[in-house]
Amino acid sequence: MTLYIDADACPVKEEAERVATRLRVRMVLVSNGGIRASANPLVESVFVAQGPDEADKWIADHAGAGDVVVTGDIPLAARCVQSGARVIKHNGEELTRTNIGMVLATRDLMADLRAADPFRQGGGKLFSKADRSRFLDVLDRVLRAAAAG
Questions:
Q1: Three-state SS at 43
Q2: Computed from CA positions of residues 104, 106, 110, 115, in that sequence, does the dihedral angle turn out positive or negative?
Q3: How far apart are CA 19 and CA 25, in angstroms?
Q4: Is 106 helix (H, G, I), strand (E, B) or coil?
Q5: Cα–chain-centroid distance for residue 81?
Q6: In 10 A of CB 1, how many CB atoms?
Q7: Is residue 51 predicted with pLDDT exceeding 90?
Q8: Could you give the C-alpha distances from 27 to 33, 63, 84, 116, in angstroms and in order?
């Protein structure tokens, strides 16, 4: 079992490392660079080529059944769920075979709405302490379940 982190814009890298260390789980931070390597022997940094979706491609090619992926990228999440990995968003939302289709459809709908109205403002909600706390709880539960098989 490996914990893969889509690290470029991940606000919960430190929290994930704490949980992975406590549970003795290998963690791989995947990014285009600019991420400081951890001295933790359980944490590996993988730097991929610059370019759109290079980190996503790497994670999708390596994550599989029994692994856990942390990402906010919905298309990557869908690929990982399809390969049997468990996926958690930064806010603690778990993406599964049951809900990934709706989450992907909502993402695509919102992209279409933004494209149709170039003056549309706004983005997602701000990341909160409650999101961070929920992430810690869900990551702990999902890693324990993945370890149990």
A1: strand
A2: positive
A3: 8
A4: helix
A5: 11
A6: 15
A7: no
A8: 17, 12, 18, 40
* β-pair partners for 29: 5, 45
Alpha helices in the chain (DSSP H): 13-23, 54-62, 74-82, 100-116, 129-148
Strands 2-6 and 86-88: unpaired
C-alpha to C-alpha distance for 30 and 46, rounded to whole angstroms: 5
Q: What do you get for the CA distance between the two ends of the chain, in Å?
A: 10
Per DSSP bridges, beta strands 43-47 and 2-6 are: unpaired
CATH number of 2-148: 3.40.50
Answer yes or no: are the C-beta atoms of 51 and 73 closer than 8 Å. no
What stretch of H or E contains 28?
A: strand 26-31
Give tens-digit pLDDT for 89-111. 999 999 999 988 777 776 666 66
